[in-house]
């Protein structure tokens, strides 16, 4: 008689992290993290960075590089305020949580946040707002957690999230290792969606041994997790990939984009590849990325 193999338990997140700051949009980030923690039964950690020294144009605050005691108190107060708002939301939702205020210089802040992010299943951060003075600082934080943690990152647009009538996710699928990683890390979120679209743009011709059209194998895999997925193909060689993705999301009414993050050293002009960089700067819905 053959062995009986038990089906694996459902994949879930158990340890989440959210970056806290005193921006108005932080509430959207916290709300998304709290909602996921509640659904998954996960612990949520909130981390606020209290900068001990800084460059004013880097973080968007008109302070000199050497902070006085009064200025340092302002920074500490902002961090404590962000933590208090986070704790209030977590208590109201009845989830397990903890919070930290991490004191460090602005130059070390990205590495500090990345360190803590390595010990979580998923990290919530905000999209840098191009209209704010602290854009460069926010971009470095995002770059650090995306490229230096090995963990998936959930990026909330600075314009906020919209309430979708039907929860729908779009996977930007090119079959690459990074896309595979992003999909695998997103499975708990995909399980909560009524519909998942595997978006294939300008697909390559494939021979029969690969099992049909591009994306079908992924749909078959996701079905094993009870995920309702289907392939959507868009052929338009004259339109950039990032524009095609954004157009499809807008037309489909999706509330989540899942994709691999392509990046390289900061020694180059841009930290991320073309499509990744464009999506991060023009995103209209939250994006779950993995590098």
TrEMBL record:
The lineage of its organism: Bacteria, Pseudomonadati, Pseudomonadota, Alphaproteobacteria, Rhodobacterales. Residues 167-289 form the UspA domain. Belongs to the universal stress protein A family. SUPFAM superfamilies: Adenine nucleotide alpha hydrolases-like. It comes from Profundibacter amoris. Pfam families: Usp (PF00582). This is Universal stress protein. InterPro entries: Universal_stress_UspA (IPR006015), UspA (IPR006016).
């Amino acid at each position: 008689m053959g062995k009986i193999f038990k089906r694996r338990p459902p994949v879930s997140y158990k340890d989440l992290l959210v970056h806290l700051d005193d921006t108005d949009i932080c509430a959207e980030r916290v709300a998304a993290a709290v909602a996921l923690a509640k659904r998954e039964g996960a612990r949520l950690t909130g981390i606020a960075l209290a900068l001990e020294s800084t460059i004013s144009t880097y973080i968007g605050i008109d302070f000199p590089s050497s902070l006085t005691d009064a200025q340092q108190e302002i920074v500490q107060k902002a961090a404590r305020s962000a933590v208090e708002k986070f704790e209030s939301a977590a208590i109201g939702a009845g989830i397990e949580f903890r919070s930290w205020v991490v004191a460090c210089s602005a130059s070390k802040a990205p590495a500090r946040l990345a360190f803590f992010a390595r010990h979580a299943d998923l990290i919530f951060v905000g999209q840098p707002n191009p209209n704010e003075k602290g854009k460069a600082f926010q971009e470095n934080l995002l770059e650090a957690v995306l490229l230096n943690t090995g963990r998936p990152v959930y990026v909330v647009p600075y314009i906020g999230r919209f309430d979708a009538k039907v929860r729908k996710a779009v996977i930007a699928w090119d079959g690459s290792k990074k896309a595979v990683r992003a999909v695998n890390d997103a499975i708990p979120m995909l399980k909560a969606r009524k519909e998942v679209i595997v978006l294939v743009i300008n697909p390559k011709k494939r021979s029969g041994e690969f099992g049909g059209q591009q994306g079908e194998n992924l749909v078959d895999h996701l079905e094993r997790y009870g995920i309702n997925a289907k392939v959507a193909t868009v052929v338009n060689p004259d339109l950039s990939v990032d524009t095609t993705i954004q157009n499809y999301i807008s037309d489909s009414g999706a509330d989540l984009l899942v994709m691999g993050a392509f990046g390289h050293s900061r020694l180059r002009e841009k930290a991320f590849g073309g499509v990744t960089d464009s999506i991060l700067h023009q995103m209209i819905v939250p994006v779950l990325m993995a590098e």
